[in-house]
Amino acid sequence: MTIRTLPAAPAARPCVKVSAELLPLALERWQPEIQAAAADDRTISIFDPIGIDYWTGEGATAKRIAGALRGMGGEDVTVNINSPGGDMFEGLAMYNVLREYEGHVTIKVLGLAASAASIVAMAGDRIEIGRSAFFMIHNCWVLAQGNRLDLHAMADSLEPFDQAMADIYAAHTGQDIAAVQTLMDAETWLGGSAAIEAGLADGLLPSEQITESTQARGPQIAARRLDVVLARAGMPRSERRALIAEIKSGTPSATGAGTPSAADSMAEQAAFAELQQALAALQSASSRFGA
Fold it and tell me: What are the pLDDT digits (tens) for 82-94?
């Protein structure tokens, strides 16, 4: 099989009332310190969330991948992946860019290829995965707003994207599309050997090709995880990011000690305790790394 036989992915987005964000569980399980032991000028590294990352202003995008491939001149290329996913629509665009590249594409999943990152990985002529690395596949996961009619329309507009992803997985793995859709519906995590058995990967990566980076990324990771905690509590994105910006600037106006009087239920108290722990982790990381 070559990437020329793979189906193209849709390039559109449903509408302006939807935003793609990281799946909380994928972010929690992501170990960003896992990277490649070596790389050369024909290697592309995807070690960030898919799409522009709010916390760093960077991230893996189709534009970045296309620019890197233009410099490869059609030569064989290796794409190293350790990403929790992110913007599914950006991931589909990245898949298209790699699918259309004239050179041989080797994908190496070093730690995690979750959600949108798993779609990017499907563009490889050969896919290798670390023994303790994971694929995670699921249906398109978004945040949407509007009334019931808007949400019905949103569900309908997402269906072609789920179908496109199922087509891509099925084409690469050789599985029946109904079986693939069942895996997507269940939000399936597949480790190295299981991913190979399922047809998502072709072979295991030698352990010496994977290492753990010592580069300081603590504050950004802590901020992302705090964002997840606040999102679970129902805080709108604009308010979450304003709060975290205050904390990072040294003016954490919402970090008072004690349990708020509104926390009457055990669930609310547990959520508040988790928030306090996340705030403390963020402040500690910011102090250590000078953020």
Answer: 999 988 889 999 9
